[in-house]
Amino acid sequence: MAVTEDLKEQEEANPSPEEKQQKPQLWKWSVIFLCLYGFMAQLKPGESFITPLLLSLEKNFTREEVTNEITPVLSYSYMTVLVPVFLLTDYLRYKPVLILQSLSHISIWLLLLLGTSLLEMQFMEFFYGITMAARVAYSSYIFSLVTPSLYQRVASYSRTSVLLGVFTSSVLGQLCVSVGEVSYGTLSKISLGFVIFGFVLTLFLPWPKRSLFFNRKLQGPEEASSAELDQMNRNCPQPTAVKPVSAWRNSVFFQMLKELLNVVKLPQLRLWSFWWIFNSAGYYLMVYYVHILWNEVYPAIENKHVYNGGVDAASTLLGAMASFAAGYVTIRWSLWSELVIGIVTSLQAGLLLLMSTTSNIWVCYVAYALFRSSYQFLVPIAIFQIASSLTKELCALVFGVNTFLATILKTVITIIIADKRGLALAVHPQFLVYFGYFTLLAVIYFGAAANVIIKHFRNEKKPVTPNQNGDTELCSTVMVVNDAEKLTNGQV
């Protein structure tokens, strides 16, 4: 049986000319279908209006219950399921986790339609946390369908399909509420219909044969030789006591964990990981509570005057434009990263202060759109700076660890300032806390920027002795080569 399996693997690694012609068409259709699913999975027109629904007469929850008892569950759920979902995504090869995500979407809208108690709304937020954690399955699934040379292209396809889905969903929801004067309950039924269709699509997704950590498969001629070596090793006596330990130590996941310790020593990776952890935690806290803030600033009597969907659509479009523009920013990031992050963070702190003090809902809307777009501007830069010098597997692990640490930080802040067991602050004082949080981060970034820039210009002013000329030229050459390598890696 083992020999038969090895022969099958060898045949897969060396396909016939006819199979080679069919495979390009196969992966193209797989990517198109996955992007269609990514678009349809975002079509939830009622998502921008969940908070108004909870505060409306249809559900009749108080603002304190929504702020201090219902919304905090999202952070707790996300933190609890993030690591298991991350590992199961790779171990089960993506598709089952996408099915779980679709079932969780269905549970959310069923609870919003049928649920009336506080506990049921907390369960709704719990399932919402599962859907957020399962996003990693979609973002990494597409890489299992194509070769590394196509990663950048298909990543842009999948990201675009998601953004188009969010934009279309927000516009559709706003049109239903403002033009069609559809009730929040009817909007929830429409959303339920879309997520059920998304669930049906997941059942027809192709099942990948490999994944990053647990289901790795060597490609090409190496696979045959590997199979032969495995067959030879089966006939060789090996000590059974050490086998499990050595197998674990030789596993890809263990090697990645060891390599992760070296990542901390790299200044740019350390800086952008710090940004990913601390700034994304603050960003998502703002996103979770901003709809409650809008309801407090402008408690609209009629549903048609609630513009949550339009604002979400506009901010999504502005964020996509900012992300696109970030790809054309060419500066010396090793010198100016801290300063750029400091400027953007201080801008975000100012926008949070504006949102927490203004009584004009349109000012709130504009500040929110600018806040989101400024964050989205730095996301692709952070991804490039972290990923350009790492392997695909280590990159996935670094992003996973960064996201988990950000989730822990977000949960701790939620427990302290939002949960009823903590300070249980109302939404306006919460935004003042977020303003202080981003102000502190901006001060740290500006301090780090001043330190880096001063060191740089001091080193430039140092006189170069004749004995140092060779070393200086060699150092410059190495820096240029390293930069070129990083750019090449980033484009793969």
From TrEMBL:
The keyword ATP-binding does not apply. GO terms for cellular component: apical plasma membrane; basolateral plasma membrane. The chain crosses the membrane at residues 70-89, 96-114, 126-150, 162-184, 190-207, 274-294, 306-328, 360-384, 396-419, 431-454. Its main location: membrane. It comes from the Eukaryota. Residues 1-21 are annotated as: Disordered. The keyword Nucleotide-binding does not apply. It is a multi-pass membrane protein. Keywords: Membrane, Transmembrane, Transmembrane helix, Transport. One of its GO terms (molecular function) is folic acid binding. One of its GO terms (biological process) is folate transmembrane transport. It is found in: Membrane. This is Folate transporter 1. It comes from Acipenser ruthenus.
